[in-house]
Amino acid sequence: MQEKINLLEKIQKIDLEVDSVEEEKLYYPLEIEKIEREIGAKEQEMEALKTEVNEFETAIKTIEDDIAVCVDRIKKNESRMNVVKNEKELNAITREINGAKKEKINKESELAKIRGRLDEKKAVKTEKEDGIAQRLAGIEELKKEFEGKKENWTDVLSRMGQERDAIAKELPPALIKRYDSIREKRQGIAVVKVKHGTLIKKFFKP
Question: CATH: 3.30.70.60, 2.60.40.420, 1.10.287.1490, 1.10.260.40. Which one for 2-204?
């Protein structure tokens, strides 16, 4: 019985190593898929940011045009001051100049705020672009690593399969079948040592 236990333990060791290789083989495609989903989400965020940046830039252009209009109004009215005919005209021109100056100040304040928000959005956009670039580089590294390991996995699995087959030939087919059945039900573990290094007796029951 002990000899059979030892052989089963060898088979289980091989099977666990095979499981480890198979898990590693699955890791790379799954990790690449995960990163690609993350990149997709970040790209959607980027599109939203681009829209916001464009809106801010359009708003800035509009306000800059408004400020230019105010400056032009101020200059024209200041030149009219030289040909003013009476106090009534002077007061009207003064009101016009003061109104244009006030509007200009308000527009400049609004412009400063929007430029500040635009700078924030651009900073976030740059950060996300860098993040996407890093994740893309990460995918390329994983792909290279994956390709580099493929041949080794093939060799390892082939060698282990041959070793397992050689050991399995020394055991009764029914015992191997029972081992495989138990292993499948117990997350890869079929052979368990207890006190004195003996196998659970029910394993050998028909």
Answer: 1.10.287.1490
